[in-house]
Write a structure and sequence with these properties.
553 residues; alpha/beta; Rossmann fold; Ribosomal Protein L25, Chain P; 3 domains; seven-stranded mixed β-sheet; elongated; RNA-binding
Length: 553
RNA sequence: UGCCUGAUAGUAUAAUGGCAGUACGACUGUUUUUGGUACAGUUUGUCUUGGUUCGAAUCCAGGUCGGGCAACCA
């Protein structure tokens, strides 16, 4: 595979464990909570967990961390499975923390029996108060010294539904004076009379994250439990539970989560964008979700390549969105079918061309000639892009202006002879003459032109709606920007071109292929498309050297 | 002010006591029937102070700066 590439710190740990024979093979897991859609940050974790197993001949479980029934839904379970599959990964087993509720309950009973857990009747405010602060130790309350028998009975009563939400909790008895807040008798079970998307109403008590995650890892014999940096303070608790319960010693390792410029990555914020309709749903192509990127046309390969490029480390990071876009372009350049589309049409009459239609051949992809060619109609009335003409051209402008020549892609060289304006002074039509011996593929004219334009034959053009997406936010580091993140939403993140003119081949092209509209960018057919109305999403634009040049002037 | 954690080019990431390298970006140029692609080249870096050492990005000590931790969320 990638023998010459250096290992990240987790790969080093895995190799070391394998080399000393600590494990025969590794088992990782991807453990999402089904309370939202997966985003590009999850993709990093997916690629890491599944990638590790793939590289070292191990396996990966997909485990839903469904211990909080009030936020979780089957809709999210389904979307998560679809996204992981689409990214190209196969899980060894589809599992749920809720599968283990009985076993986890028994774990808590064991802790109580060992005198290591107790039922606390305090309300949440009191518990928070007694926990102290990071600089002040907490205090032990009277419930802490309840007898094992009483604790056992109370816990059974909790399960039996004798108490209302919040009336009692079970806490691990660890150390109220610990410098680590998570070790100050953490709550491990709470009462929640809520319907669970899988276990229904079988339970009214649910384990907390810290008493479900490590336990689930251990039950599954996960060797390397990989999570993000914010769980570092949880690790002593993770290890404490495993030690006291005397169960399989899974080990937790932490890496830095992905942050990306011009976007948000937290489920809370993404949910807010959806609920307040700043975007049109979880898969709005401007979102950072996997489903949005899929809809927008980002290939799964590009996302995997991106995750590989950004690496895995413990340092906080903010990755340029442009790196993801680079990965998308790199892939699409090799695979996308070239087509010609004009967004903002300017009519050209080719005055010396006969009143007939000619069919011209054009390659589908110059990077991959095996994709063949297609036939494009050409006649004496065509459309080009309005900004491919300037009445007074600046220097280094290689497009149309009075007297200037350009090549029409896969067709002829034309010369601009005249232009027509309406009464408001807008250019409405160009009169050009073509060079008959300059036909593409058999050019004997000897003329060299600097510019080549895409064009569409007026009589056979089909209309299409084009959706152009820009970054959703106006600032690079949205999460750390002052104030409400919604204040930084880019009002121009979606531009719709209702009536673009496209070459007729697009009408019969398959719906699932990627296109490059020549000189415009990469596009895919959106699912909103109908038989009569084609709708395209711009996946990503092309690099635009001229825009840079023009900006300098 | 407690505990935990981190700091290498604009952004990421490698070098595991022995020539600071790679990718993206930026900038030049060549090629080009996409101002795309490809190719060639240029540019910019070890947070700081001291110590150990023949030799320190790496080890040690202090400082500075960043991130996390006080949910019956995960």
């Amino acid at each position: 595979m990638s023998e010459d590439k250096s290992l990240n710190f987790i790969e080093e740990i895995v190799e070391a464990d394998l080399n000393i024979g600590k494990y025969q093979s590794i088992l990782t897991r991807f453990p999402p909570e089904p309370n939202g859609y997966l985003h590009i940050g999850h993709a990093k974790s997916i690629c890491l967990n599944f990638g590790l197993a793939k590289k070292y001949g191990g396996k990966t479980n997909l485990r839903f961390d469904d211990t909080n029934p009030s936020t979780e839904e089957t809709e999210y379970v389904d979307s998560i499975k679809e996204d992981v599959k689409w990214l190209g990964f196969e899980w060894a087993a589809e599992l749920y923390a809720s599968n283990y509720f009985e076993q986890i309950y028994q774990f808590a009973v064991q802790l109580i029996e060992k005198g290591l857990a107790y039922v606390d009747d305090s309300n949440s405010e009191t518990i928070a108060l007694e926990k102290g602060t990071p600089t002040q130790p907490g205090i032990e309350n009277a419930f802490r010294s309840r007898s094992i028998t009483e604790n056992l009975q109370l816990f059974a009563d909790m399960r039996a539904g004798k108490y209302k939400d919040g009336e009692k909790v079970v806490r691990a008895k660890i150390d109220m004076g610990s410098p680590n807040m998570h070790m100050r008798d953490p709550i491990i079970y709470r009462i929640k009379h809520a319907h669970h998307h899988r276990t229904g109403d079988a339970w009214c008590i649910y384990p907390m994250y810290d008493f479900a995650h490590g336990q689930s890892d251990s039950i599954e014999n996960i060797t390397h439990s990989i999570c993000t940096l914010e769980f570092i303070p949880h690790r002593p608790l993770y290890d404490w539970c495993i030690e006291k319960l005397e169960i399989f010693p899974s080990k937790q390792y932490e890496f830095a989560r992905l942050n990306m410029t011009y976007t948000v990555m937290s489920k809370r914020k993404l949910l807010q964008l959806v609920n307040e309709q700043h975007v049109n749903g979880w898969d709005d192509p401007r979102m950072s979700t996997i489903s949005a990127m899929r809809r927008r046309g980002y290939p799964a390969e590009s996302i995997r390549e991106f995750c590989d490029k950004i690496g895995v480390a413990k340092r906080e990071n903010l990755i340029d969105l442009s790196l993801l876009e680079f990965c998308v372009r790199e892939r699409l350049n090799k695979t996308a079918m070239r087509r010609m589309v004009v967004f903002d049409p300017l009519k050209i009459v080719i005055t010396n061309y006969p009143n007939t239609t000619e069919y011209l051949e054009s390659e589908n992809n110059p990077e991959d000639l095996s994709t063949g060619t297609r036939s494009i109609p050409f006649s004496n009335v065509i459309f080009v892009e309005k900004d491919d003409f300037m009445e007074v051209a600046p220097k280094k402008y290689f497009r149309l202006s009075p007297g200037q020549m350009v090549r029409l892609k896969s067709a002829y060289i034309i010369k601009c002879d005249d232009f027509i304006k309406d009464q408001d002074g807008n250019i409405v039509e160009l009169h050009c003459s073509y060079i008959p011996e300059s036909k593409s593929g058999s050019d004997t004219s000897g003329i060299n032109v600097k510019g080549t334009l895409q064009w569409v034959n007026a009589a056979t053009a089909i209309k299409a709606e084009i959706r152009l997406y820009d970054r959703l936010f106006k600032v690079e580091d949205v999460a750390n920007a002052e104030g409400d993140f919604k204040d930084y939403i880019n009002p121009d993140s979606l531009q719709i071109i209702a009536n673009a003119y496209a070459e007729p081949a697009l009408k019969t092209d398959n719906a699932d292929v990627a296109f490059q509209f020549i000189r415009k960018g990469y596009f895919v057919i959106d699912r909103d498309s109908t038989h009569d109305q084609l709708v395209f999403n711009r996946t990503v634009n092309l690099k635009d050297g001229w825009a840079k040049e023009a900006k300098k002037a």
